[in-house]
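Troubleshooting log. The previous structure file for this entry was overwritten by mistake, so regenerating from the original sequence record. Sequence copied from the archived sheet and checked twice against the printout by T.R.
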Amino acid sequence: MANDLEAQVKQLEAQLKALQEGQPKDQLSMIVFSGDLDKVLAAFIIATGARAMDMEVKMFFTFWATPVLRAKNKKGGKKDFMSSMLGCMLPKGSTQTKLSKLNMCGMGTNMLKSVMKKKNVASLESLIETAGELGVEIAICQMSMDLMGFKKDEMIDYPYLSYVGVGTYLSDAQESKIQLFI
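Regenerated output below.
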C-alpha cells in the first residue's frame, strides 16, 4: 500500500514537471510588419514596457518594417537594378518613416513629432536606443532582406540584432505568453 502511494506520488511529480516545462515563458514575441511611424512607435513602446516588466522581448521585423532598421549613413554596397530601385523608393531608417494616416505630404508626421517633443514623449530613435539598452532582441527576416535587396552592412548598429527565418520566429512565439502582430 505504501509502495503504491509512493509510486503514485512520483508519477504525479513527473507529470507536474512535464506540465511546468511545457508552459510558455514570460516572453513577448512580436511581428513588426508595418514601417509606418505610428505603428513602429507602438511596437517599441510595448517592447520597452514589457522589458521594464522583466519580460523577455523578441521583435521580428519583416517586409515593410525592415527599411526602418536601415542606417541612414550606411551603404549596402553594389546592388542589381531592382534592389537599387527598391532601396531608393523605401524609407531609409527610422527618421524617414511616415504616419499611416493623416500624413498629408509629411505635415502630419511633422506635427506628431512636434507634439511628441513638446510632451516629452520619446522619439522613435530614442525608443530604439532604449530597447537596445534594455536587451530587447530584434530579428530581421532574411527573406525580406533578400527580396528588398538589403545587405547586413546597411542595417543599424544594434546590440541584439540577428537575421533569421520564419521558423525562428515561430519557435519564439510558441514559447511566449504573448504574441503580437503590428
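Helices lie at 2-21, 37-52, 81-89, 107-118, 124-134, 142-148, 166-174. Archived copy saved in two places this time.
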